[in-house]
């Protein structure tokens, strides 16, 4: 089968949520199908990442997305009554390249990752199209609106409303839609009734992320993620201001490592606090996970499945997460994944783990077993194969 796969970023390296999922999907599909990847790149630096995926697929077409132009297109879309996030990803040269390759290659199906990329195959009504929402971006913007004050609250609420209208149009005009959790499916069916939808969850590379014999840093806490992403920034700032001081009162040796690329000034400033380290971009997050005793994921604005939680659990780390970060992961309550939302509750849960080596070890073993059982990529992506077969058969 000849598959056109569209992604908003180069699906390599798999070092952030959308790239992790798209990388594993492309790699999985390419084992059985002829896959042609079309994507935007976050500047010229990201174009260099194409070589990491090119060897796995039939072809890769990547067009650099220039930030100032993207913002100008987003503003134009906002003023014209359209979702600004659709304008942000609207690059004329990629439209032209995809149209040319569609006529030349005559694909059997298009799989589109993220609502911002749907515009590139919207005109191709004779081509079977699958829209992979993962989670509804309109609901993320609604969350942002709830947590901000005017004028951002107005801006985000407007985007949430306009984007939901766009998502409804796409879902009904495409052949099938995909979300990543049962909760997302419930929201989808409530907000977009009558459109065909299936759930294909995230996974984790259980061979790559595995427990290590590396010595632990006593009292070590870790958070991983791209550190210019608003929910991640909110999470670590809240944790450092509201939770970490309470932890260090009872566990003075506790340290907190914020591991991830592109830290904002607000994140960089946290390095001045006692016990806090901000790494910036690292080549491999596994040594930082291996050195920690507990992973913390205090994300208060989240949809879908948090890859950082699955990766920590696969490394055999007990994990303390906010409800929003935990909600998409369907494991038993004794799987080494603990929920806490209030500062006192969060601190108490972390301190209990830091103070009890036997509890930590048992929780880490349970976490690893849970992801092995439920969240291998092979298990998750079997559902994607079934959807492709169904859509192309019709």
Descriptive report:
By secondary structure, this protein is an alpha/beta fold. The chain has 2 domains: 219 residues, 3-Layer(aba) Sandwich (Rossmann fold), CATH 3.40.50; 155 residues, Glycogen Phosphorylase B (Rossmann fold), CATH 3.40.50. The chain is built from 17 helices and 13 strands. Strands 3-2-1-4-5-6-7 form a 7-stranded parallel sheet, with helices on both faces. A 6-stranded parallel sheet has the order 10-9-8-11-12-13, sandwiched between helices. Helix 1 links the parallel strand 1 and strand 2. The longest helix is centred in the middle third of the chain and has 22 residues. The protein is globular, with a radius of gyration of 21 Å. The two termini are 14 Å apart.
Question: Key terms for this structure?
Answer:
7-stranded parallel sheet; alpha/beta; Rossmann fold; 394 residues; 47% helix
Q: What is the fold's blueprint, element by element?
A:
Elements: E1 2-7, H1 17-30, E2 34-41, H2 43-47, H3 51-54, E3 59-64, H4 67-79, H5 84-88, H6 92-105, E4 109-113, E5 129-134, H7 137-146, H8 152-173, E6 176-179, H9 182-191, E7 197-199, E8 220-224, H10 230-250, E9 255-259, H11 265-268, E10 276-280, H12 286-291, E11 294-297, H13 307-314, E12 319-321, H14 323-326, E13 337-339, H15 343-354, H16 357-374, H17 377-393
Parallel strand pairs: 1-2, 1-4, 2-3, 4-5, 5-6, 6-7, 8-9, 8-11, 9-10, 11-12, 12-13
Helix pairs in contact: 1-17, 7-8, 10-15, 13-16
């Amino acid at each position: 089968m000849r598959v056109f796969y569209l992604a908003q970023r180069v699906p390599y390296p798999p070092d952030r949520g959308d790239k992790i999922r798209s990388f594993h999907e492309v790699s999985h599909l390419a084992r059985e199908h002829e896959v042609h990847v079309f994507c935007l790149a976050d500047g010229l630096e990201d174009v260099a990442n194409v070589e990491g995926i090119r060897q796995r697929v039939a072809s890769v077409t990547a067009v650099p997305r220039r930030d100032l132009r993207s913002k100008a297109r987003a503003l134009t879309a906002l003023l014209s009554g359209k979702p600004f996030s659709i304008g942000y990803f609207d690059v004329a040269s990629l439209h032209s390249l995809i149209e040319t390759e569609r006529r030349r290659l005559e694909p059997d199906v298009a799989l589109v990752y993220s609502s911002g990329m749907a515009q590139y195959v919207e005109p191709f009504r004779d081509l079977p199209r699958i829209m992979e929402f993962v989670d509804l971006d309109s609901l993320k913007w609604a969350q942002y609106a709830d947590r901000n004050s005017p004028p951002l609250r107005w801006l985000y609420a407007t985007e949430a409303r306009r984007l939901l209208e766009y998502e409804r149009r796409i879902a009904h005009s495409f052949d099938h839609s995909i979300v990543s959790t049962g909760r997302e499916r419930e929201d989808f069916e409530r907000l977009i009734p009558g459109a065909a939808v299936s759930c294909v969850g995230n996974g984790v590379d259980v061979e790559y992320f595995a427990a290590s014999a590396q010595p632990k840093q006593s009292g070590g806490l870790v958070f991983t993620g791209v550190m210019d992403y608003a929910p991640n920034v909110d999470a670590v700032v809240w944790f450092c201001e509201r939770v970490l001081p309470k932890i260090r009162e009872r566990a003075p040796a506790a340290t907190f490592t914020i591991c991830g690329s592109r830290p904002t000034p607000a994140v960089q400033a946290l390095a001045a606090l006692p016990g806090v380290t901000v790494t910036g971009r690292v080549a491999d997050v596994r040594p930082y996970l291996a050195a920690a005793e507990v992973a913390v994921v205090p994300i208060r604005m989240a949809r879908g499945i948090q890859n950082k939680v699955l990766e920590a659990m696969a490394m055999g780390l007990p994990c303390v997460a906010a409800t929003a970060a935990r909600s998409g992961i369907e494991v038993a309550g004794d799987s080494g994944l603990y929920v806490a939302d209030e500062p006192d509750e969060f601190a108490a849960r972390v301190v209990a783990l830091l103070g009890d080596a036997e509890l930590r070890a048992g929780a880490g073993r349970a976490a690893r077993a849970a992801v092995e059982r439920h969240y291998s990529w092979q298990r998750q992506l079997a559902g994607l194969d079934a959807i492709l077969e169904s859509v192309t058969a019709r």
